[in-house]
Amino acid sequence: QVQFEASGGGLVQAGDSLRLACAASGRIPGSTSVAWFRQAPGSEREFVATIRYGDGTTMYADSVKGRWTISRDYATKSVYLRMNTLKPEDTALYYCASGGPILSSRPEEYDAWGQGTQVTVSS
User: Fold this and answer.
1) Which end of the chain is more exposed for a tag (fewer CB within 10 A), N or C?
2) Which backbone phi and psi does 109 adopt, to 5 degrees?
């Protein structure tokens, strides 16, 4: 089992940037996909981005495509989410999760979930 700890959230203004990190507690198989999801209070959990750890293949939600970049770093065993041009509607608790080799936007495809990091964007 691989688990992640999310960090890097904070309070920012609209237009600012943040980088979230999802650090692995153990070895990450190359076949693992790692995804970011977010959930605002009273809302459904929403897919943000995912990456296959082995080859770096990515998939993004339309709402963040072109603004944000998901990446992985073998040296730190981490998956990052660079969040540019933040908007108030990006305010949410951001989770990272790991799953199988197929990139998916569905939370049920992911097995191991971190505890999340809060991102708050003021207007």
Assistant:
1) N
2) -85, -5
